[in-house]
Design a protein that fits this description.
The strands form 6 sheets. Strands 12, 13, 14, 17, 19 and 24 form a 6-stranded mixed sheet that branches. Strands 5-4-1-7-9 form a 5-stranded mixed sheet, with no helix packed on it. The chain is globular and about 60 Å long. By secondary structure, the protein is mainly beta. The chain has 2 helices and 26 strands.
Length: about 450
């Protein structure tokens, strides 16, 4: 079975929040899909309207083919350049060039190294696309068979990223994910602000939020085995700016303060976000200077709507640009820690993950608890690093609907965002600001 996708790499200003922008953004924009023996189906956002990273879905064992076209438009005398105040690396070149080529590299899958790696290495053929050129990348999504390969399980999520210029392109948006589902699974579209796919929903093989139904069933069958899936790309090393009036750009957002480690703190430079979105907190990092309140119940970061009692699969992908590791937690739920099964005894259950960095790909499988009265409520997801991840915007909400309703009203839920965690994070930033003021005096 073969599944094909047509994708264009383009320049686009990325709006991370209504007042925060990356004016040097680069995106993978899906334009078409095709199944074996079928016709090409136009799909995806229109040019200039990409709102989230490219996220593709397939079944285990399928051959996935991506036709990537470099649609970066440049004037005859124009070239790509580093953005002002770009996040640094320990060994930096002030006048470093920026490539106008693009590519797509996929982790974990099998492919022909001379044709589909996405990187130009040694004497291998050129695998990047110059402006106007199209390259094909073919991947085998079968899981390797060996004693320690968890045979029988699908690969799950994996990172897609540009390898033509990973010093520049990745932190400007050329990242994505491919989720490999079991052979009998079908993803169905979930409309915005809905908690699950409608009974009349169509199968869809792209997007960050789907309802997955197993064994060839459809959402219209109430007895069908279903799961609510969402994909979250964690980003760091971004250079974001305050959005001015019209097309103007204001000052860059502040980096975490320098500390005694000196050059090592280059790992913390830049901003952070999920899926091209961020929601900074507190007086240092938030241009609005606002704490989270009930008056602003929806953060700019993804708000995932799910039914009470649902089986959920959250696919966490590290689309990071810095070597600094992060952690990740979800309030109010737990999942099996299958990566470190003890030789004897029960498998531990956890509510957080550590060592999340570029290329990390994990599926967190949990069930939304059913509370008495089936009341709607919010569960926070966030980085576990309070200094400086949460204040820089690495948090969001899983919004649980009541059993009686399929849609959720933000005003009808109990707002309990980050609780003591958010308060501690904002307090830590405030205390730092006070220490800096005392030092100036």
């Amino acid at each position: 079975m073969e599944r094909r996708f047509r994708v264009k790499a383009e320049r686009q200003r990325l709006l991370y929040r209504s007042d925060i922008v990356d004016p040097y953004g680069l995106v993978y924009r899906l334009t078409g899909t095709k199944e074996l023996g079928g016709e090409w189906m136009p799909t995806g956002p229109s040019k200039g309207n990409v709102r989230e990273p490219l996220i593709l879905w397939c079944r285990e064992g399928e051959r996935v083919v991506v036709e990537l076209t470099n649609s970066i438009e440049l004037l005859p005398s124009e070239s790509l350049e580093p953005e002002p105040h770009a996040p640094e690396v320990p060994v930096e070149k002030a006048d470093r060039p920026v490539s106008s080529h693009v590519s797509m590299h996929a982790d974990l899958v099998r492919y022909q190294i001379r044709a589909a790696d996405g990187a130009n290495v040694g004497h291998n053929p050129v695998q990047t696309a110059q402006p106007g050129e199209t390259k094909l990348y073919e991947w085998d999504t079968s899981r390797p068979t060996s004693e320690d390969s968890n045979e029988g399980e699908a690969l799950g999520p994996l990172l897609l990223q540009d390898m033509a210029d990973f010093r520049n392109h990745r932190h400007h948006g050329l990242v994505g994910a491919l989720v490999v589902l079991p052979k009998d699974a079908t993803p169905f579209e979930v409309q915005p602000r809905r908690a699950r796919a409608r009974s009349t929903a169509k199968a869809v093989w792209h997007g960050s939020r789907v309802t997955v139904v197993r064994k060839g069933e459809a959402p219209s069958n109430p007895a069908a085995e279903r799961e609510e899936h969402m994909v979250l790309l964690m980003q760091d090393g971004l250079r974001l700016f305050m959005k001015g009036k019209g097309g103007n750009v204001g000052f860059p957002l502040p980096d975490p303060p320098n500390e005694e480690a000196g050059d090592a703190e280059k790992e913390d430079q830049g901003q952070k976000g999920f899926n091209y979105r961020t929601e900074p907190l507190g007086p240092v990092f938030d241009p609005q200077g606002n704490p989270y309140t009930r008056l602003r119940p929806d953060p700019a970061t993804p708000v995932w709507h799910v039914p009470s009692g649902a089986e959920v699969r959250l696919h966490l992908v590290g689309a990071c640009d810095k070597p600094r590791h992060h952690s990740f937690t979800i309030h109010g739920v737990t999942w099996r820690e299958d990566r470190f099964e003890p030789p004897t005894g029960p498998v531990p259950w956890v509510s957080s993950e550590s060592a999340v960095s570029c290329g990390t790909a994990r599926t967190l499988a949990f069930k939304i608890p059913v509370h008495p009265g089936h009341k709607a409520r919010d569960l926070a997801y966030r980085s576990g690093v309070l200094k400086w991840d949460v204040p820089q915007g690495l948090w969001g909400i899983i919004r649980v609907k009541s059993q009686a309703r399929d849609e959720v009203s933000a005003g009808a839920v109990t707002i309990s965002l980050l609780g003591a965690a958010a308060a501690s994070a904002v307090a830590a930033v405030s205390m730092f600001g006070q220490r800096r003021r005392r030092k100036r005096k």
